[in-house]
């Protein structure tokens, strides 16, 4: 202890006696001063620093921001200033020492059924809130979306929505279904009309054919008649000259 006190006094005297040799930041003591020699200093290097004047013979190792603890470098170490660490993206600082983050936690993830009320920052965790009734969210949105209003869209509700999932509607519009049924009926009626018309037409053709078949004998009769007529004419002509004679 006596020796320490003596050395301290000696150093103080020494420093006071030779102010320019006051140990500057970024330096370490190479050799202590004596009554005959000023203190000699040497700059810190190789990942070390000295951020305040001191009589230390060793520079202090620079802080390393531990990547596996969610930290990263904000400011690189110099001979006069230590490293400043900050949280990585998606992390927030839970322990700050001398302006540098020492420990960081991951931002909380909002759950399905919750929305992000406040996005997390480097110094504050994310804040989540539960979706209000009639809305839903998967936890990644800044708001909850309202359920699809199936009824007011004229759609049949298949499954009502809850805080995590949307309502599910029957995509077939009831009016559309009705119009399809009506169209179907109309088509059926049209088909029946066409079939009936076709049947009638065929019947008519059949009638015509029969009519043609039926009209054949009268034709022969007619020719027959004409022959008879000719015959009678001939016979008449034959008779006439006789009469004329
Ligand atoms: C200590 O430094 C001062 C200022 O530069 C100088 O005047 C003095 O001679 C030095 N002393 C020794 C012992 O070197
Ligand atoms: C990192 O540096 C920026 C300025 O470049 C500063 O605003 C921020 O607060 C720093 N972060 C920490 C953790 O010191
Ligand atoms: C919400 O509905 C979905 C699908 O029907 C279901 O899987 C889920 O468990 C429901 N969630 C809650 C909180 O009721």
From TrEMBL:
Q: Where is this region: Disordered?
A: 215-245
Superkingdom of origin? Eukaryota
Positions with biased composition (Polar residues): 216-238
Q: Does the keyword Transmembrane helix apply?
A: yes
* One Gene Ontology biological process: positive regulation of cytokine production involved in immune response
| A cellular component term, taken from the record's GO annotations | external side of plasma membrane
- What residue stretches are annotated with the TNFR-Cys domain? 43-85
User: Known Pfam families for this protein?
Assistant: TNFR_c6
Membrane-crossing residue ranges in chain numbering: 177-201
Q: Span of the secretion signal?
A: 1-20
Q: Which UniProt keywords apply?
A: Disulfide bond, Membrane, Signal, Transmembrane, Transmembrane helix
Where, in residue numbers, are the TNFR-Cys repeats? Answer: 43-85
Q: Which cysteines are joined by disulfide bonds?
A: 44-59
What InterPro entries does UniProt report for this protein, alphabetically?
Answer: TNFR/NGFR_Cys_rich_reg
Q: Which SMART domains match?
A: TNFR
UniProt keyword Iron present: no
The name this protein carries in UniProt is TNFR-Cys domain-containing protein
């Amino acid at each position: 202890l006596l020796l320490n006190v003596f050395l301290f006094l000696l150093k103080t005297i020494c420093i006071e006696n030779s102010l320019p040799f006051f140990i500057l930041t970024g330096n370490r003591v190479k050799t202590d001063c004596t009554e005959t020699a000023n203190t000699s200093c040497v700059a810190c290097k190789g990942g070390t620093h000295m951020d305040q004047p001191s009589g230390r013979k060793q520079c202090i190792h620079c802080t390393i921001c531990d990547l596996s603890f969610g930290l990263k470098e904000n400011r690189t170490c110099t001979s006069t200033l230590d490293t400043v660490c900050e949280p990585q993206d998606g992390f927030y600082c839970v322990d700050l020492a001398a302006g540098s983050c020492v420990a960081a936690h991951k931002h909380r993830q909002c759950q399905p059924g919750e929305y992000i009320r406040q996005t997390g920052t480097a110094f504050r965790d994310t804040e989540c809130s539960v979706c209000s009734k009639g809305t839903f969210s998967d936890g990644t949105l800044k708001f909850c979306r309202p359920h699809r209003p199936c009824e007011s869209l004229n759609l049949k509700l298949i499954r009502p929505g809850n805080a995590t999932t949307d309502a599910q509607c029957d995509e077939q519009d009831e009016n559309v279904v009705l119009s399809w049924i009506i169209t179907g009926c109309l088509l059926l009626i049209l088909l029946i009309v066409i079939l009936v018309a076709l049947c009638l037409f065929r019947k008519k053709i059949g009638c015509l054919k029969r009519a043609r078949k039926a009209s054949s004998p009268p034709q022969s009769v007619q020719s027959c008649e004409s022959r008879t007529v000719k015959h009678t004419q001939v016979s008449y002509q034959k008779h006439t000259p006789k009469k004329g004679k």
